[in-house]
Each structure stands twice: as C-alpha cells, then as structure tokens.
Amino acid sequence: MNAHVVELEGSVHQRVQKLLPWVVTGQLADTEELLVQEHVATCTQCRDDLAWQRKLRAVQPAAGAAPDMEGALARLMPRLEPKRTAANGPWMRWALAAQLLVIAGLGAKMSMQETPEYRLLGAQGGAASANLVVVFKPETSEAQLRGVLKSNFATVVGGPTATNAWLVSVPARGLDDAVTNMRASAAVSLAEPLQAAR
Asked: How many helices (H) and strands (E) does the chain have?
C-alpha cells in the first residue's frame, strides 16, 4: 500500500506562516517564494503577518551596527545636570567658612586651658599628702563613708591598701578633731594620724 500525503489548505497556511520571516530577509528559494506569494494573495491573516514582519525588519538595526554612544550621552547629560537649590547657593560658602572659624576658635581656646592633673587614688605622690589612715568597717555603705569624710573635711588620696586602709588628707588645723570624730563613728574601725602630735 502506498501512502499519499494530501496537503490541505490548513497545512499550506502553517507552512507559509513558518516561511514569512525568511521572505522578509530574502532567503527563500524561488519555489517557496512563489508559494508564499500565491497564499498571501488569498489569505488576509498571512498578508497582515507579512506586513508586520516587514515593519519589524525596518526598525531592526543593521547587523554589526554600533550604537550611537555620543548621541545617547548627549541626550542623557541634560537630565543629569544638578538643579540649583538653596543648599547650593552662595551663602553656603560663607556658612561653611564661619563654621570653620568657630571650630578653630574653640580648638584654640581648649588648647590654652590648663587641664587639671588626673591621678588615680593609688598613684605615687597622692599618698604624700595623706595625714591620716582610716579603716572602715566592712558593712559600711558608700553613703556612710562619704558622710564621715565630708563631716571631717577629709579627702581620700590613696587606697585601699592590702589591709583595706584608706589614706586620707585632712586640713592640718582640724587633724586632731578629725581623728577624734572618726574614732567615735560607728562606721570606722581604725583612725590613726600619720604625723606626730604637735
């Protein structure tokens, strides 16, 4: 049995649809070109598709064509230009200059100020001004400790030592009174002067 392929109108239509892009580029054989021309004369859909393919080909850049970079940049530059705002005004330079002068003035003033010497309680030299050794009871709160020192015009200048003693400075005129008051305080377990009695 021999098989004969019968081409129906639908299959010619499909074949022409596949050939339309090749018609536009001019790459069809003469027989296929003739088939497309005959079908397009009778089929409005294929005629419209062929017209659309030709429009598409007309706007497509040529193969190997380089884009116009200079032209694209020229069109883009006006969009990138900064817009003048109040922040870019001439007064901004004066404001920045004034700010710089103020900062420089403050820096000069700070460099001229005499900075008090900072020293730690256990640092050398602080103990030299101590004239009293005080040991507070372990249960003494920080507030009670400050109260005892303040009432006797005393300042801590060193400590605590290995025996939990604090080196304290009291004005020389009130040293005897401070020793008596601290010994009477419930927060103090030991108060001894470092200088001999006068």
From this structure: 7, 4
Amino acid making up residue 144: Q
Contact in structure between 178 and 154 (CB atoms under 8 Å): yes
Can you tell me whether residue 166 is helix, strand or coil? strand
Tell me the whole-structure pTM to 2 decimals. Answer: 0.37
Torsion region of 125: left, alpha or beta (phi above 0 gives left; psi -120 to 50 gives alpha): left
pLDDT digits 0-9 by tens, 117-171:
665 555 555 556 788 899 999 898 889 889 999 998 888 888 788 888 889 889 8
Long-range contact pairs involving 47-50 (C-beta distance under 8 Å, separation at least 24): 49/17, 49/20, 50/20, 50/23, 50/24
Q: Where are the alpha helices (DSSP H) in 43-171?
A: 44-59, 69-80, 91-112, 142-151
As a whole number of angstroms, the distance between CA 116 and CA 175 comes to: 26
Radius of gyration of the chain (CA): 51
